[in-house]
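Quick illustration, no need to memorize.
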Amino acid sequence: MTDDRPDSAPPRHSGSLLTGVTALLLLAFVGVVGGAVLVSMPSTGGRPVVYPTFGLPAGTPAATSAAPPRASGPFDGTPAAGFPQGQAGIALPAAKRTGPFTEKQVAAALAKVRTVLVTARLDRGFMTTDDPEPLIRLFARDARAGLRKSFASDTFAAYATRLAPGARLTADQPRVKGRISYRATKDADGIRILAVTTNFVWAYAFRTSSTVPGDGLVVVHDTVVWSMPHPDDVKRGSNGLWIEDANSYTANVDCAAFDKGLLGLGTRSFGGPDGPGPDAVFDPAATLDLPDTC
């Protein structure tokens, strides 16, 4: 397993068993990029950056002076209009025996990851309260201390959504598009793990008076590697779900709120050069390697 954590993080392994306090690779930086906020790993160096809106940066000539058509719904006129709604966008691949993991073990791991995704990114109760425990308790016992540290900072934003004070979603379900894959592998100590990789775009509709397409949306694109160690290779406290790696960007976001990892709707008063176009912001296949501008 990659062990790219800050020096202050406790050891991940002890001998050949997972016994460390945390397996979470703590994310050190938050920023926004071309209509997107980037949350990246410490190994990338520097402070990430943010573009808070989908609009062109100030001083950039538009391709046309014609006003965009008025949007009747929050997703109209954006790629998210064609995305599935809510949990329907989280489709699991077929579970098959993989390496030392049985079909039943693979199915259980995939189901756990889906439950975590629904809680972390779609559960409005979780997103609007200060209590992260409903999510944290879904992980292995030894992973929980590290997760609590991430919620005490801003780094949780790489894998979970929390709304800023005063931010209000519409009644519309978030639109979701992405994919899930898995493989059997081993970490540096020879522990067998099932690594599940998720790559999703989450589009949230916030209340706004604007009728310009996309103005009311905050879009998160994350890629997370979750791992489930083989139960024969770890102690009881380490048996369960861990986070191996997590990166994300968030578009059209309020910069001040996202400095705390919280989502709030951005405004057109911000901007910067070299930002990605709207299509890239909504594309799960697009890169997360974006410049910081916030």
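The mean pLDDT is 78.
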